[in-house]
Design a protein that fits this description.
The structure holds 2 protein chains of 2 kinds. By secondary structure, chain A is an alpha/beta fold. Chain A has 7 helices and 13 strands. In chain A, the strands form 3 sheets. A 9-stranded mixed β-sheet of chain A has the order 11-10-9-12-8-1-6-7-13, sandwiched between helices. Chain A has a two-stranded antiparallel ribbon with strand order 2-5. A two-stranded antiparallel sheet of chain A has the order 3-4. The longest helix of chain A has 17 residues, at about 35-50. Chain A is globular and about 65 Å long. Chain B is an alpha+beta fold. Chain B folds into 3 domains: about 5-120, Butyryl-Coa Dehydrogenase, subunit A, domain 1 (Orthogonal Bundle), CATH 1.10.540; about 120-230, Butyryl-CoA Dehydrogenase, subunit A, domain 2 (Beta Barrel); about 230-380, Butyryl-CoA Dehydrogenase, subunit A, domain 3. In chain B, about 50% of the residues lie in helices and about 15% in strands. Chain B has 12 helices and 10 strands. Chain B has a 4-stranded mixed β-sheet with strand order 1-4-5-8. Chain B has a 4-stranded antiparallel β-sheet with strand order 2-3-7-6, with helices on one face. A two-stranded antiparallel ribbon of chain B has the order 9-10. In chain B, a hairpin with a 2-residue loop joins strand 9 (about 270) and strand 10 (about 270-275). The longest helix of chain B is centred in the middle third of the chain and has 35 residues, at about 230-265. Classes of the chains: A alpha/beta, B alpha+beta. The structure holds flavin-adenine dinucleotide (FAD). The site of flavin-adenine dinucleotide (FAD) has 19 residues of chain B, from strand 1, strand 3 and helix 12.
Chain lengths: ~260, ~375
């Protein structure tokens, strides 16, 4: 089984602050992490390889710092890591990003599965995984919450929908996107982290992918961000204070009764 | 003089912090109450590779220094003092094998301890030999290629749950302290039994059992260092162990301080946050200052050890200071919480119970003062 996992490095949103004047994220000094859903994707791939044998290859398109996220994936247990980085990739939208990733997958060659997170924490589009499957012309199963069956011919996935679950089967090769509840990503130990620090992260640029420049980065992006803003809050939230949880719950119930919700 | 951690150390500590926040801290209160050895925590600490920090990589460790080990111990103890105590007692089996073991002993025992595959324990204290460790009465009489052990150890942390023990016994009682010898024992050896588990003020899930030796045969190859050098093995182990105790006390005191400063900013009396009262501010300032002093003493003792310099006096000073700081800070943290601090809904009452242990084990505060004074008088210039 050869499994490719496509990951993104994102700012740790639990530590992100918003500049109140511009409404944009202040990224300076904010630690970067692997997009949390991508950790589920890595975990799923590692578990499948543990059961069926094979290798896990992790790829990421991003600036040179994204190497750190790839090393984290190596520490978790991935066999190979490839950083896809080039100045001409900057400013890519989801179309250009998924195109570049598809070129990288083609260069890797034969594979059985691709795992992605359901969406990135910062952009929240959820389009890169599906876009990648389209560029490669392979089936995709999004929002995977369970892996029900895997043979060398097909995979059957339980999907998380807004109103229930759905079981879908697709022939290999196939692309899967992971939701948080798919699994509990492992926390790598110290020794694995130290080893990953010394492991090789391969670096591929636009040339070695044979990608056409006009389909990469800003040039290859039909969409552009017009404005980023925080939605104005119309109703002020209210914090319920109290010494104990029970007290707080009682206050909440009283308030809901007052508002005639209960 | 350099007081900053390197980038690599910071990265290491941030992993450990994340681990402690997610896997240890949320369960500390229940770990204190449960009367069940915290195997799940032990397993997670092993998965993080934290049991082998100062052990070379060839024996399954991380090959790092005692300073790194100390800071990791501090984070662990702040998150869950019981897990910190399991860790500290385990290390008491690990150091003597690391310092004195032969290559074969290291391959056979150290590797298992460093990876956390097996838990360790250290058996020195006996019913009649506490502070006066040289008076141990457990005998180990040579018989052919074996030693035959008879006697009882008491209070042994991880006792019964650990698989590998370093035990101090006397192989030639007629030679007094010069007969004392250290042995590596494994759970399951014939004649090696466990007695009652102590009921304690805190650390309910920690095991502290008697080790009972009834004609227990131990092969001579399990002698650690040389016959007759067991007292040296024990003292060297405790010297480093004191840094471990000291840092555990720092972590605990820090946790109590963090709880107090948070509470002071939330609780209101007389129409104000209590943090606005100068008497509360005095408590906060005193606590933080004492913790910082204790922490620096401890880091320095660990640093001296890493440099291969003498650290005995400094380790004893660190252990003495920090255990008294932990007692003061945890008690003051309860004071800042008022009546709520006395109730188990808040963590500070547990911290206060946990803190007392640090003034007793691995040499009481009285014994630390003796160690420090001995060293001072040895080093002092002789008046003409
Ligand atoms: C929870 C717990 C875990 C423990 N874990 C271990 C373990 O894993 N392995 C192990 O070997 N032991 C362990 N111990 C034992 C511990 O190290 C001893 O309790 C400690 O060394 C004190 O010995 P003691 O209890 O016999 O007190 P004693 O030595 O009887 O001391 C009683 C009092 O007399 C004072 N005193 C004694 N001698 C002097 C002196 N010369 N001058 C002034 N004052 C003196 C002491 O300071 C103390 O105040 C543990 C104990 C506890 C409670």
């Amino acid at each position: 089984m050869k499994i490719i996992v496509s990951i993104k490095q994102v700012p740790d949103t639990t530590e992100v602050k918003i500049n109140p004047e511009t409404g944009t994220l202040i990224r300076d000094g904010v630690p970067s992490i692997i997009n949390p859903f991508d950790e589920n994707a890595i975990e799923a791939a590692l578990q499948l390889v543990e059961q069926h044998g094979g290798e896990v290859i992790v790829i990421s398109m991003g600036p040179p710092q994204a190497e750190q996220a790839l090393r984290e994936a190596l520490a978790m247990g991935a066999d190979r890591a490839i950083l896809i980085s080039d100045r001409c990739f900057a400013g890519a939208d989801t179309l250009a990003t998924s195109y570049v990733l598809s070129q990288a997958v083609r260069r890797i060659g034969d594979f059985d599965l691709i795992f992605c997170g359901k969406q990135a924490f910062d952009g929240d589009t959820g389009q890169v995984g599906p876009g990648l499957a389209e560029h490669l012309g392979i089936p995709q199963i999004t929002y995977a919450i369970g892996i029900e069956e895997l043979t060398d011919k097909h995979i059957q996935i339980k999907r998380l929908l807004s109103d229930g679950f759905e079981s879908v089967r697709a022939p290999l090769p196939c692309l899967i996107t992971a939701v948080k509840q798919l699994n509990e990503p492992r926390m790598p130990g110290l020794k694995a982290r130290m080893k990953a620090k010394k492991s090789e992260v391969e670096a591929w640029n636009c040339d070695c992918l044979g990608a056409s420049q006009d389909r990469c980065g800003l040039d290859g992006s039909p969409t552009s961000v017009w404005k980023v803003f925080s939605p104005t809050r119309h109703v002020e939230g209210e914090m319920i204070e109290g010494e104990t949880t029970a007290q707080k719950i009682n206050t909440l119930i009283d308030k809901l009764r007052e508002a005639k919700v209960l | 003089m350099q007081f900053a951690f390197t980038e690599e150390q910071q990265e290491l500590f941030s992993y450990v912090q994340e681990f402690c926040d997610e896997k240890l801290k949320p369960f500390a209160a229940e770990t204190d109450k449960a009367h069940e050895y915290p195997w799940d925590k032990v397993k997670q600490v092993a998965e993080m590779d934290l049991f082998g920090i100062p052990v070379p990589e060839e024996y399954g460790g991380a090959g790092l220094g005692f300073l790194e080990w100390a800071v990791i111990g501090e984070l662990m103890s702040a998150a869950c003092t019981t897990t910190g105590a399991v860790y500290g007692a385990h290390m008491l089996a690990e150091y003597p094998i690391l310092f004195f073991g032969t290559h074969e002993q290291k391959e056979k025992y150290l590797t298992r301890l460093a990876t956390g595959e097996s838990i360790g324990g250290f058996g020195l204290t006996e019913p009649m030999a506490g502070s006066d460790a040289g008076s141990v009465r457990t005998t180990a009489i040579k018989d052919g290629d074996d030693y035959v052990l008879n006697g009882t150890k008491i209070f042994i942390t991880n006792g019964g749950d650990a698989e590998i023990y370093v035990v101090i016994a006397n192989a030639q009682p007629e030679r007094g302290m010069r007969g004392i010898t250290a042995f590596i024992l494994e759970k399951g050896m014939p004649g090696f039994e466990f007695g009652k588990n102590e009921e304690k003020m805190a650390y309910k899930s920690l095991s502290n059992r008697e080790l009972i030796f009834n004609d227990c045969r131990v092969p001579a190859e399990n002698v650690l260092h040389k016959p007759g050098r067991g007292f040296q093995v024990a003292m060297e182990t405790l010297r480093v162990g004191r840094i471990g105790m000291a840092i555990g006390a720092v972590g605990l005191a820090q946790a109590a301080f963090d709880a107090a400063i948070e509470y002071a900013q939330v609780r209101e009396q007389f129409g104000e946050k209590i943090a606005n009262f100068q008497l509360i501010q005095m408590h906060l300032a005193n606590m933080a200052t004492e913790i910082e002093a204790g922490r620096l003493l401890t880091y320095r003792a660990a640093w001296l050890k890493d440099q291969g310099l003498a650290f005995e006096k400094e380790a004893a000073m660190a252990k003495l200071k920090t255990s008294e700081v932990a007692a003061m800070v945890t008690s003051t943290a309860v004071q800042v919480h008022g009546g709520y601090g006395y109730c188990s809904e808040y963590p500070v009452e547990r911290y206060m119970r946990e803190a007392k242990l640090f003034e007793i084990v691995e040499g009481t505060s009285e014994i630390q003062r003796l160690v420090i004074a001995n060293q001072l008088l040895k080093d002092a210039p002789r008046p003409q």
